[in-house]
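RECORD TYPE: inverse folding
INPUT: structure tokens
STRUCTURE:
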């Protein structure tokens, strides 16, 4: 159990983030939704409190690319709870031109998206790690992807409007190595850093894509958003006390 541990989920109002908040509630933690969308954040906060009959859910507006916003978030949580036990980097910022096909991506958009996402994860980890260093303990979990591990299987996107963005591959692979860098840099500080890399999450994708995706897997195919909960809780708990700098893949064998 994660009894009363204060755990921050960036992008906590999104598809996966909301599920992570539910997982924390099941463990009796203080679940903090940190999201740039204030209106959506409060909507999700109120919905989950009613749905789960649980009061230890909080919301704070957060821009992961802003030190000012990050320090305001950290200060708010420290003043209210006196501790922050863990950070889950789950936000997914991107600009309006994100996810164009390779030959259509402009340099400026590539750089901006790398900065927003990978740069945002770096800055968020940096500011929280400063707090963790003073606190003398902390835990950071970065949400990466199977496409940070293997090259895209472009054939599964044929005859759809979907693609696997080049920015995504650069961001998610960079994040896995950033995790290793930070884990090593924090040696002796009692700050643990790991990555969770999911396979594809079902979100009403076209049936032809789902069929082709499933053929690349061993059993289920696309994951439900709830399929990541067990691994997340494991990495947050003392059961993974000596797992550090690692990338845990949850993908039904897609990367094999």
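DESIGNED SEQUENCE:
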């Amino acid at each position: 159990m994660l009894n009363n541990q204060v755990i921050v989920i960036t992008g906590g109002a999104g598809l996966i983030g909301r599920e992570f908040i539910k997982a924390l509630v099941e463990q009796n933690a203080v679940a903090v939704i940190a999201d740039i969308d204030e209106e959506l954040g409060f909507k999700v906060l109120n919905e989950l409190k009613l749905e789960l009959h649980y009061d230890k859910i909080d919301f704070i507006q957060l821009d992961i690319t802003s030190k000012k916003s990050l320090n305001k978030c950290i200060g708010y949580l420290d003043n209210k709870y006196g501790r922050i036990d863990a950070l889950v980097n789950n936000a997914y910022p991107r600009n309006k031109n994100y996810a164009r096909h390779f030959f259509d991506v402009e340099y400026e958009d590539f750089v901006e998206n790398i900065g927003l996402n990978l740069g945002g994860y770096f800055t968020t980890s940096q500011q929280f790690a400063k707090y963790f260093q003073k606190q003398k303990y902390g835990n950071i979990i970065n949400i990466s992807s199977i496409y940070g591990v293997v090259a895209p299987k472009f054939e599964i996107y044929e005859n759809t409007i979907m693609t696997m963005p080049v920015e995504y591959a650069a961001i998610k692979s960079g994040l896995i190595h950033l995790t290793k860098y930070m884990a090593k840099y924090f040696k002796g500080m009692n700050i643990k850093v790991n990555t969770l890399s999911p396979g594809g999450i079902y979100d009403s994708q076209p049936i032809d894509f789902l069929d082709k995706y499933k053929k690349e897997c061993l059993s289920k195919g696309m994951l439900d958003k709830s399929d990541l909960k067990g691994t997340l809780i494991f990495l947050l708990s003392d059961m993974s006390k000596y797992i550090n700098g690692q990338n845990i893949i949850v993908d039904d064998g897609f990367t094999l």
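NOTES: Residues 42 and 70 are 18 Å apart (CA to CA).
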